[in-house]
Amino acid sequence: MADVFDKVKEIIVERLDVDEAKVTMEASFKDDLEADSLDVVELVMELEDEFDMEISDEDAEKIQTVGDAVNYINSNQ
Amino acid sequence: MNNAGITRDNLLMRMKEDEFDDVIDTNLKGVFNCVKAVTRPMMKQRGGKIVNVASVVGVTGNPGQTNYVAAKAGVIGMTKSVAKELAARNINVNAVAPGFITTDMTDALSDEAKQGMHDMIPLNRLGEPEDVARVVRFLASEDSDYITGQTIHVDGGMVM
Questions:
Q1: Helix H segments across chain A?
Q2: Which of A34, B110, B138, B147 is least crowded, fewest Cβ atoms below 10 Å from its Cβ?
């Protein structure tokens, strides 16, 4: 669990160029991390590669917070 | 570069739904599918060039080609939308709109029809495939880095 969160955080910090402290489980990509819709699509792509999984467009649309991403990865790996 | 295209010409009143769908599927949806497929690697590498082949009839309309014209006009609109979506990732998306080009399709026309074409073309000749290819090459090269969302007519001045 912690491993997944750390890895996701690392990717977010690098991709969105945000302060590590802002990346909490509750943080919303769009509202708190200032990601636009294309950023989110790109993040999901990167998570797919990193965790070697495929996230359907339908599921991807539901991922709005860091926690959503971490939980999705944990329950689908 | 998205170039696949077919024709199923018929007057609107005689056009079957199949003839409409076939052309839309290949000429418009085919471009959508290919663009979607290349977008992922291009986003990752933070850059890329997409060139779609439209047609001047997508701008002017053409009797007997409701399906083909709808698809080609669709390609021009799609080019603009995708260009706006991907501009932030340094991906250029442009279209070329060829006019009358010497191909098997135009070779089959009568001399009279060919003369009719010449009269419509200010540069007074049909285009060669190379005329189109050179513009595609330009749009795929760094020489066109500051051009996106455009449709370049390669038609000897036929449509201005």
A1: 2-16, 37-50, 57-62, 66-76
A2: B110
